[in-house]
Structures are given as structure tokens and as C-alpha cells.
From TrEMBL:
ABC transmembrane type-1 domain ranges (all copies): 63-251
Cellular component GO terms, alphabetical: plasma membrane
Family, similarity comment: Belongs to the binding-protein-dependent transport system permease family. CysTW subfamily.
Principal localisation: membrane
Superkingdom, natural source: Bacteria
Topology relative to the membrane: Multi-pass membrane protein
Keywords of the record: Cell membrane, Membrane, Transmembrane, Transmembrane helix, Transport
Subcellular location: Cell membrane
Protein name: Spermidine/putrescine transport system permease protein
Transmembrane segments: 12-42, 62-85, 97-125, 131-157, 178-210, 230-251
GO terms of biological process kind: transmembrane transport
Amino acid sequence: MSRRNGRALQGYALIYLLFLYAPIILLPLFAFNSGTIIAFPLQGFTTDWFAQMWANTTLRRALTNSLTIAFSASVLATCFAIFAARASTRFAFPGKGGIMGFIMLPMVLPEIIIAMSLLVVLLGAGVELSILTVIVGHTLICMPYGIAVLSTAFSSLDRSLEEAAYDLGESKWGAFRLVTLPLVMPGIVSSLLISFTISLDEFIIAFFLAGNQPTLPTYIFSQLRFPKQIPMIMALGTMLVALSIVLLAIGEHLRRRGNARMGANPSGGLL
């Protein structure tokens, strides 16, 4: 009976992986297909869609905007998450549970509620919608994920290492900079990667707060109405998948270096 259950579980895992990754595998197939119709059989090999993608000024502008937003939001969210995670794991203060609950609230609130609320507040304050307003919104929704990752990193940190630094004459800032930050660096890298990924493919907040500045998700959404643009979108998706793999490899390399510095098992998971 256990062998039958094991085979059933393996079959389920195989079906799940096919369902999850088959669309990603199809992206490069149709990106290099010469036909404009997304269907089998493939008609031929071409790189014209990639050439059209790079020649499209609106797409390049949207990609630049999205990368700028994702980089800025991931750095800001991770910096704020470091402060919040450090405070929540090291200090006891009145109302800590309620404060942390409010900070983590964007993780469970519907994004359309957050987007509409931010839109009303920003317009009421007379703020012009732009890339900066999208960065604010993405920082707000990315910060809880960074806090969740970094709270685990700070909680698993041995406090005696900081105390040893104090005994050796380091100030609190010196001990934090020279001891604590290097030890939690794998968590910081994970927070940056998670925040960057969330921001890069976020649509609702960008749709509400970007104004007349296109972002990559809003641009892709606008092009889905034109069937002849679909192959170019496939080429763009292929480039984004390749970028994600590169970022994952870089993050894993940095994580292994951080774990090696801590003396941990380098084969552990990214998070």
C-alpha cells in the first residue's frame, strides 16, 4: 500500500511540475517561432521578435521604469525591514504586537484596496502620479515579506556574538555593522530578491499609481489586445525568465558565501 501511495505521490508531483513549468518552457519555443499565431506546429526559426522588442521604444521605456521601480522598492523595503525585524526580535516595547500587525497588514489586504487607498491619499495631497508614487506603493507591499524573512534571520542569530563585540570595545553601531549585518546577509539577499520579484511583476498598484508612465506589466496588458504583438511579448517573457534565473544564481552564490562565513551548511535553502 505504501508503494502505491509513493507512486501516486510521484505522479502527482510530476503533473504538478508539468502544470507549473510547461508554460515557461513554451515561452522560448514561440519566441523563436516565425509564425504570428501561437499554435503548433511551429513554422520556423527566427530572431525577429527579439529585434522588434529592442526596437520598440515604448517597451524599452516600460522595462526601464519597471527595473528602476523594482530596484528602488526592493532596497527601500529591505532597509525598512531590517529596522523593523531588528526591533521586533531584540526589544520589548508597549504595543509591539499591534504595531507589527499593522506593518504586516499589506501582506493580507487585497492589493486593489491598497491601490485605491493610496490613490485617494496621494491625489488628496496634491501629489502627481509618477514612478515615485509606484515606488512608494511597492515599498509598502514588499516590506512585510522582507520583515518575515529577516525576522527569522535575526531570531536565529546568536546574541552572544554581539555581546562579545561589546566586550571587545565595539559600539552598538560598530557591532551591528561588523557582526550582525554580515551574519544576516543571506536573509538580506533573500529579502532583496523577493521584493524585486514582487515589484517587477506587480500590476494593480502600478496600474493605479503610475499615471502616464508605463511599466512592464501595464504595457504587456495593453498589448494583449493585438494578436500580432503576442510573439514579441513571448520574446520579452523569455528575456525575463533568463533574468530571473541569473538573479536566482547570484542570490544563491551570495547565500552560500554568507553561510560559509557563518560556518553553516551551504547546501541549505535560499530562505
